[in-house]
């Protein structure tokens, strides 16, 4: 039986996202739906989020409108689908500082946060460079960086330096430097608690937008194809993809891209009244299904 229950929770979407950004290269090949989502884990006495979503006010709202985000719902409503309240959340892992992953940190008053030090340091640096360098800070809300610093002052945000095992029982984090962002982090869950686990899940942040980043579009000739949005290098994205896939023994569907609209058809899922998907990847002992 699994140690942690796992759900992927949609909270908004971009209905028509260019395929050329999801998958580097193919221009003029149309669009796909891009859900915005975060991951909820429950187990071992913890209620854990991987990323927070954003706050649909101020500059977060401006960025969301720029990217064509629709059907936004806040964490109170989204987490209620799994019987969780924001104040119940004990730990949050931030994969990277883009607004749609880090922008709602203020909604979790009892949580301890983990992020890579390099991510915070380099965004502060990039924000000092001036307007002609604004590509480098495209999806960052400076207010989120300020919130991160304030949480550090309160002793609630831990800046990690690289890879760490068992940050929580069975949960490891890995730095993928200079990829999608300067200090992107992916999270590995060994859901049987074993070091040599047979039940590994990886939460990829935006190192992947779609499973197609692991296979390419030609099933006859698989290849790694990086996402089309990086401040680091495509090589680093490809090697991070290979490392993640290796960690799950080559079982693609265990490397979770939260922006992948096909999660709902690969795993048990339910569409909420608000038109959002709840996707259930695993259930721990004693937990009831939230998609039945
Ligand atoms: Zn991102």
Descriptive overview:
With 292 residues, this protein is α/β, with parallel strands linked by helices. It has a single domain, classed as Ribonuclease Z/Hydroxyacylglutathione hydrolase-like (Metallo-beta-lactamase, Chain A, 4-Layer Sandwich), CATH 3.60.15.10. The chain is built from nine helices and 14 strands. The strands form two sheets. Strands 1, 2, 3, 4, 5, 6, 7, 13 and 14 form a nine-stranded mixed beta sheet that branches. The chain has a five-stranded mixed beta sheet with strand order 8-9-10-11-12. The longest helix has 14 residues. 47% of the residues are buried. The mean pLDDT is 96. The structure holds zinc ion (ZN). The site of zinc ion has 5 residues, from loops. The site of zinc ion (ZN) has 5 residues, from loops.
Q: Mind sketching the topology for me?
A:
Elements: E1 4-18, H1 19-22, E2 31-43, E3 46-50, H2 58-67, E4 69-70, H3 75-80, E5 91-93, H4 99-102, E6 112-116, H5 117-127, H6 142-153, E7 157-160, E8 164-168, E9 171-177, E10 183-190, E11 200-203, H7 212-215, H8 234-247, E12 255-256, H9 263-266, E13 269-271, E14 277-282
Parallel strand pairs: 3-5, 5-6, 6-7, 11-12
Antiparallel strand pairs: 1-2, 1-4, 1-14, 2-3, 8-9, 9-10, 10-11, 13-14
The chain binds zinc ion.
């Amino acid at each position: 039986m699994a140690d942690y229950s796992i759900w992927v929770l949609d909270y908004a979407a971009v209905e028509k996202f260019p395929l050329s950004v999801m998958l580097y290269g193919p221009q003029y090949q149309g669009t796909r739906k891009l859900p915005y989502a975060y991951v909820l884990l429950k187990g071992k006495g913890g209620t854990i989020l991987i990323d927070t979503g954003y706050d649909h006010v101020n500059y977060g709202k401006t960025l969301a409108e720029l990217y064509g985000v629709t059907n936004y719902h806040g964490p109170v409503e989204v987490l209620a689908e799994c019987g969780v309240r924001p104040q119940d959340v004990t730990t949050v892992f931030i994969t990277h500082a883009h607004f749609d992953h880090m922008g709602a940190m203020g909604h979790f008053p009892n949580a301890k946060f983990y992020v890579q030090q390099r991510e915070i340091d380099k965004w502060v640096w990039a924000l000092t460079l001036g307007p002609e360098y604004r590509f480098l800070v495209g999806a960052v809300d400076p207010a989120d960086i300020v919130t991160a610093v304030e949480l550090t002052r309160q002793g609630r945000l831990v800046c990690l330096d690289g890879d760490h095992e068992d940050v929580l029982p069975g949960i490891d984090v890995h730095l993928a430097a200079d990829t999608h962002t300067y200090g992107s982090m992916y999270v590995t869950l060994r859901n049987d608690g074993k070091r040599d686990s047979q039940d590994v899940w990886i939460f990829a942040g935006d190192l992947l937008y779609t499973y197609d980043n692991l296979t390419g579009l030609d099933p006859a000739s698989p290849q790694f194809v990086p996402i089309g949005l990086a401040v680091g290098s495509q090589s680093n994205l490809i090697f991070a993809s290979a490392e993640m896939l290796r960690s799950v023994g080559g079982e693609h569907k265990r490397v979770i891209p939260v922006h992948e609209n096909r999660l709902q058809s690969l795993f048990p899922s339910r569409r909420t009244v608000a038109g959002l998907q709840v996707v259930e990847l695993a259930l721990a002992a004693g937990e009831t299904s939230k998609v039945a």
